Amino acid sequence: MGLTLHPLGPTIGAEVEGLDMSLPLTDQQHDWVEQALLQHQVLFFRNQAITPGQHVAFAARFGDLHRHPIYPHVDRHPELLLIDTAVTDVRDNAIWHTDVTFLAAPAMGSVLAARQVPAFGGDTLWANGVAAFEALSAPVRQLLDGLTATHELTKSFPTERFGSTPEALARYEKARKDHPPLSHPVVRTHPATGRKALFVNEGFTTRINELEAAESDALLRLLFSHVSRPEFTVRWRWKANDVAFWDNRITQHYAIDDYRPQRRVMHRATMLGDVPF
Protein backbone atom coordinates (compact mmCIF):
# COMPACT_ATOMS: atom_id res chain seq x y z
CA MET A 1 0.00 0.00 0.00
CA GLY A 2 3.00 2.29 0.26
CA LEU A 3 2.23 3.17 3.88
CA THR A 4 5.05 3.66 6.36
CA LEU A 5 5.01 4.10 10.11
CA HIS A 6 7.56 6.14 12.11
CA PRO A 7 7.28 5.70 15.90
CA LEU A 8 7.80 8.92 17.85
CA GLY A 9 8.78 7.20 21.09
CA PRO A 10 8.73 3.85 22.85
CA THR A 11 5.41 4.45 24.63
CA ILE A 12 3.00 6.37 22.42
CA GLY A 13 2.73 8.07 19.04
CA ALA A 14 3.69 7.40 15.43
CA GLU A 15 3.67 9.37 12.18
CA VAL A 16 2.11 7.78 9.10
CA GLU A 17 3.34 8.52 5.59
CA GLY A 18 1.85 7.51 2.27
CA LEU A 19 -1.87 7.89 3.01
CA ASP A 20 -4.01 10.42 1.13
CA MET A 21 -6.95 11.11 3.41
CA SER A 22 -8.83 12.93 0.66
CA LEU A 23 -9.47 9.55 -0.99
CA PRO A 24 -11.83 6.88 0.37
CA LEU A 25 -10.04 4.30 2.51
CA THR A 26 -9.76 0.84 1.04
CA ASP A 27 -10.52 -2.06 3.36
CA GLN A 28 -6.82 -2.91 3.44
CA GLN A 29 -5.87 0.65 4.37
CA HIS A 30 -8.58 0.74 7.04
CA ASP A 31 -7.27 -2.44 8.66
CA TRP A 32 -3.67 -1.18 8.51
CA VAL A 33 -4.56 2.14 10.17
CA GLU A 34 -6.65 0.37 12.81
CA GLN A 35 -3.79 -1.95 13.75
CA ALA A 36 -1.32 0.96 13.82
CA LEU A 37 -3.68 2.83 16.16
CA LEU A 38 -3.90 -0.15 18.52
CA GLN A 39 -0.11 -0.34 18.59
CA HIS A 40 0.72 3.37 18.99
CA GLN A 41 -2.49 4.94 20.45
CA VAL A 42 -2.15 8.17 18.45
CA LEU A 43 -1.28 8.56 14.76
CA PHE A 44 -0.19 11.74 12.97
CA PHE A 45 -0.55 12.58 9.29
CA ARG A 46 1.12 15.58 7.62
CA ASN A 47 0.00 17.51 4.52
CA GLN A 48 -3.66 16.46 4.50
CA ALA A 49 -5.56 19.29 2.81
CA ILE A 50 -8.91 17.57 3.30
CA THR A 51 -12.34 19.14 3.02
CA PRO A 52 -14.82 18.88 5.89
CA GLY A 53 -16.70 16.24 3.91
CA GLN A 54 -13.55 14.16 3.43
CA HIS A 55 -12.76 14.55 7.13
CA VAL A 56 -16.20 13.20 8.04
CA ALA A 57 -15.90 10.33 5.55
CA PHE A 58 -12.52 9.21 6.95
CA ALA A 59 -13.68 9.30 10.58
CA ALA A 60 -16.97 7.55 9.79
CA ARG A 61 -15.06 4.47 8.59
CA PHE A 62 -14.13 3.86 12.24
CA GLY A 63 -17.48 4.41 13.95
CA ASP A 64 -20.67 6.43 14.24
CA LEU A 65 -19.97 10.12 14.74
CA HIS A 66 -20.92 12.10 17.84
CA ARG A 67 -22.52 15.54 17.81
CA HIS A 68 -21.23 17.65 20.68
CA PRO A 69 -24.01 19.09 22.86
CA ILE A 70 -22.30 22.44 23.55
CA TYR A 71 -19.50 23.31 21.12
CA PRO A 72 -20.37 24.87 17.74
CA HIS A 73 -19.98 22.79 14.59
CA VAL A 74 -18.58 23.39 11.13
CA ASP A 75 -21.13 24.82 8.66
CA ARG A 76 -23.19 22.05 6.99
CA HIS A 77 -21.28 19.40 8.96
CA PRO A 78 -22.86 18.92 12.40
CA GLU A 79 -20.56 15.94 13.04
CA LEU A 80 -17.50 18.22 12.93
CA LEU A 81 -16.72 20.10 16.13
CA LEU A 82 -15.37 23.63 15.59
CA ILE A 83 -12.58 24.53 18.01
CA ASP A 84 -11.81 28.15 17.14
CA THR A 85 -10.31 30.61 19.61
CA ALA A 86 -12.06 33.45 17.77
CA VAL A 87 -15.48 31.86 18.37
CA THR A 88 -15.43 29.79 21.57
CA ASP A 89 -13.72 29.80 24.94
CA VAL A 90 -11.54 26.66 24.65
CA ARG A 91 -9.80 26.77 28.03
CA ASP A 92 -11.33 23.38 28.87
CA ASN A 93 -8.90 21.83 26.37
CA ALA A 94 -5.94 23.15 28.39
CA ILE A 95 -6.37 20.38 30.92
CA TRP A 96 -5.67 16.66 30.74
CA HIS A 97 -8.86 15.00 29.52
CA THR A 98 -10.34 12.10 27.61
CA ASP A 99 -13.06 13.19 25.19
CA VAL A 100 -16.73 12.99 26.20
CA THR A 101 -16.38 10.59 29.14
CA PHE A 102 -19.66 12.12 30.32
CA LEU A 103 -21.32 9.70 27.85
CA ALA A 104 -22.43 6.22 28.90
CA ALA A 105 -20.51 4.88 25.88
CA PRO A 106 -17.65 7.39 25.43
CA ALA A 107 -15.72 7.95 22.24
CA MET A 108 -13.74 5.20 20.57
CA GLY A 109 -11.50 7.82 19.01
CA SER A 110 -11.17 11.28 17.56
CA VAL A 111 -9.77 12.71 14.32
CA LEU A 112 -8.47 16.28 14.71
CA ALA A 113 -7.50 18.41 11.70
CA ALA A 114 -5.46 21.62 11.97
CA ARG A 115 -7.02 24.38 9.85
CA GLN A 116 -5.15 27.42 11.18
CA VAL A 117 -2.27 27.25 13.60
CA PRO A 118 -0.27 29.94 15.42
CA ALA A 119 3.27 30.78 14.36
CA PHE A 120 4.43 29.39 17.69
CA GLY A 121 2.81 27.56 20.58
CA GLY A 122 -0.39 25.55 20.54
CA ASP A 123 1.18 22.08 20.75
CA THR A 124 -0.86 19.11 21.99
CA LEU A 125 0.26 16.36 24.37
CA TRP A 126 -1.12 12.81 24.53
CA ALA A 127 -0.63 10.33 27.38
CA ASN A 128 -0.84 6.53 27.32
CA GLY A 129 -3.20 5.30 30.05
CA VAL A 130 -1.98 1.69 29.69
CA ALA A 131 1.65 2.64 30.37
CA ALA A 132 0.55 4.81 33.30
CA PHE A 133 -1.45 1.99 34.87
CA GLU A 134 1.28 -0.60 34.39
CA ALA A 135 3.86 1.70 36.01
CA LEU A 136 1.90 1.82 39.29
CA SER A 137 2.91 -0.52 42.08
CA ALA A 138 1.05 -3.81 42.38
CA PRO A 139 -0.79 -2.80 45.61
CA VAL A 140 -2.07 0.41 44.00
CA ARG A 141 -3.14 -1.44 40.84
CA GLN A 142 -5.02 -3.90 43.03
CA LEU A 143 -6.72 -1.06 44.92
CA LEU A 144 -7.86 0.67 41.73
CA ASP A 145 -9.11 -2.40 39.90
CA GLY A 146 -12.81 -2.65 40.73
CA LEU A 147 -13.34 0.97 41.80
CA THR A 148 -15.68 3.28 39.88
CA ALA A 149 -15.63 7.05 39.39
CA THR A 150 -18.19 9.73 38.58
CA HIS A 151 -17.82 11.75 35.36
CA GLU A 152 -19.67 15.04 34.88
CA LEU A 153 -20.06 17.26 31.82
CA THR A 154 -20.28 20.38 33.99
CA LYS A 155 -16.75 20.00 35.37
CA SER A 156 -15.27 21.21 32.06
CA PHE A 157 -18.34 23.14 30.90
CA PRO A 158 -19.44 25.47 33.72
CA THR A 159 -22.48 27.70 33.33
CA GLU A 160 -20.55 30.96 33.64
CA ARG A 161 -18.50 30.18 30.51
CA PHE A 162 -21.05 28.38 28.34
CA GLY A 163 -24.34 30.03 29.33
CA SER A 164 -23.51 33.69 28.82
CA THR A 165 -26.41 34.42 26.41
CA PRO A 166 -30.04 33.23 26.51
CA GLU A 167 -29.46 31.01 23.47
CA ALA A 168 -26.25 29.56 24.90
CA LEU A 169 -27.87 29.04 28.30
CA ALA A 170 -30.79 27.14 26.76
CA ARG A 171 -28.37 24.89 24.86
CA TYR A 172 -26.30 24.40 28.00
CA GLU A 173 -29.28 23.51 30.20
CA LYS A 174 -30.46 20.96 27.64
CA ALA A 175 -26.97 19.42 27.49
CA ARG A 176 -26.83 19.19 31.28
CA LYS A 177 -30.29 17.58 31.43
CA ASP A 178 -29.42 15.10 28.66
CA HIS A 179 -26.06 14.18 30.26
CA PRO A 180 -26.43 13.66 34.03
CA PRO A 181 -23.43 12.47 36.06
CA LEU A 182 -22.57 8.80 35.51
CA SER A 183 -19.97 6.24 36.55
CA HIS A 184 -17.18 4.41 34.74
CA PRO A 185 -14.54 2.01 36.02
CA VAL A 186 -11.36 3.66 37.28
CA VAL A 187 -9.39 1.06 35.33
CA ARG A 188 -10.72 0.24 31.87
CA THR A 189 -10.01 -2.89 29.82
CA HIS A 190 -9.38 -2.15 26.16
CA PRO A 191 -12.01 -4.09 24.15
CA ALA A 192 -9.58 -4.99 21.35
CA THR A 193 -6.27 -5.61 23.13
CA GLY A 194 -7.44 -6.66 26.60
CA ARG A 195 -4.90 -4.34 28.25
CA LYS A 196 -5.88 -2.28 31.27
CA ALA A 197 -5.62 1.50 31.39
CA LEU A 198 -6.35 4.32 33.82
CA PHE A 199 -9.72 5.81 32.90
CA VAL A 200 -10.03 8.88 35.12
CA ASN A 201 -9.27 12.35 33.79
CA GLU A 202 -9.05 15.83 35.22
CA GLY A 203 -11.48 17.22 32.66
CA PHE A 204 -14.56 15.20 33.67
CA THR A 205 -13.87 12.92 36.68
CA THR A 206 -15.19 14.35 39.94
CA ARG A 207 -14.83 11.57 42.52
CA ILE A 208 -14.12 7.91 43.19
CA ASN A 209 -17.42 6.53 44.36
CA GLU A 210 -16.32 3.89 46.87
CA LEU A 211 -14.04 6.23 48.87
CA GLU A 212 -14.64 9.03 51.34
CA ALA A 213 -14.38 12.49 49.81
CA ALA A 214 -10.93 13.26 51.23
CA GLU A 215 -9.60 9.86 50.15
CA SER A 216 -11.07 10.31 46.68
CA ASP A 217 -9.56 13.77 46.27
CA ALA A 218 -6.12 12.58 47.33
CA LEU A 219 -6.14 9.52 45.08
CA LEU A 220 -7.41 11.45 42.06
CA ARG A 221 -4.69 14.08 42.53
CA LEU A 222 -2.13 11.29 42.51
CA LEU A 223 -3.56 9.68 39.38
CA PHE A 224 -3.97 12.95 37.48
CA SER A 225 -0.34 13.82 38.19
CA HIS A 226 0.92 10.31 37.47
CA VAL A 227 -0.66 9.89 34.03
CA SER A 228 1.00 13.07 32.72
CA ARG A 229 4.57 11.99 33.51
CA PRO A 230 6.78 12.69 30.45
CA GLU A 231 7.66 9.04 29.87
CA PHE A 232 4.00 8.26 29.14
CA THR A 233 3.50 11.13 26.68
CA VAL A 234 4.13 12.42 23.18
CA ARG A 235 4.09 16.09 22.11
CA TRP A 236 3.01 17.21 18.64
CA ARG A 237 3.93 20.55 17.08
CA TRP A 238 1.14 21.35 14.65
CA LYS A 239 1.45 22.56 11.08
CA ALA A 240 -1.53 23.56 8.96
CA ASN A 241 -3.20 20.49 7.38
CA ASP A 242 -1.86 18.09 10.02
CA VAL A 243 -4.29 15.43 11.22
CA ALA A 244 -4.15 13.42 14.46
CA PHE A 245 -6.15 10.24 15.08
CA TRP A 246 -6.14 8.87 18.64
CA ASP A 247 -7.60 5.97 20.58
CA ASN A 248 -9.80 7.73 23.11
CA ARG A 249 -10.34 4.55 25.13
CA ILE A 250 -6.83 4.52 26.61
CA THR A 251 -5.39 8.01 26.11
CA GLN A 252 -5.68 11.51 27.51
CA HIS A 253 -4.61 14.75 25.84
CA TYR A 254 -3.80 18.36 26.71
CA ALA A 255 -3.94 21.29 24.28
CA ILE A 256 -1.38 23.81 25.49
CA ASP A 257 -2.87 27.32 25.71
CA ASP A 258 0.32 29.35 25.18
CA TYR A 259 -0.29 31.14 21.89
CA ARG A 260 -2.73 33.98 22.59
CA PRO A 261 -3.63 36.37 21.02
CA GLN A 262 -2.85 34.29 17.93
CA ARG A 263 -5.77 32.34 16.46
CA ARG A 264 -6.00 28.55 16.38
CA VAL A 265 -8.70 26.72 14.36
CA MET A 266 -9.21 22.96 14.57
CA HIS A 267 -11.94 20.60 13.34
CA ARG A 268 -12.66 17.41 15.29
CA ALA A 269 -14.69 14.34 14.42
CA THR A 270 -15.44 12.02 17.34
CA MET A 271 -16.32 8.35 16.83
CA LEU A 272 -18.60 6.76 19.39
CA GLY A 273 -17.38 3.67 21.21
CA ASP A 274 -18.67 1.13 23.71
CA VAL A 275 -19.50 1.02 27.41
CA PRO A 276 -16.26 0.83 29.45
CA PHE A 277 -15.63 -2.34 31.46
UniProtKB/TrEMBL annotation:
Top-rank EC class of the record's enzyme: oxidoreductase
| Names of required cofactors | Fe(2+)
**Any Pfam family matching the protein:** TauD
GO CC aspect terms: cytoplasm
Could you tell me the keywords of this UniProt record?
Dioxygenase, Iron, Metal-binding, Oxidoreductase
At the top level, the lineage of the source is Bacteria
Q: Which GO terms describe its molecular function?
A: metal ion binding; taurine dioxygenase activity
Residue ranges annotated for the TauD/TfdA-like domain, each copy included:
6-270
- A single GO BP annotation from the record? sulfur compound metabolic process
Q: Which SUPFAM superfamilies match?
A: Clavaminate synthase-like (SSF51197)
Q: Which InterPro entries match?
A: AtsK-like, TauD-like_sf, TauD/TfdA-like
- Its Enzyme Commission number(s) read 1.14.11.17
- Any keyword Metal-binding? yes
What PANTHER family is this protein classified in?
Answer: ALPHA-KETOGLUTARATE-DEPENDENT SULFONATE DIOXYGENASE
Q: Which NCBIfam families match?
A: PRK09553.1
Q: So what family is this one in? A: Belongs to the TfdA dioxygenase family.
Report the protein name in the record: Taurine dioxygenase
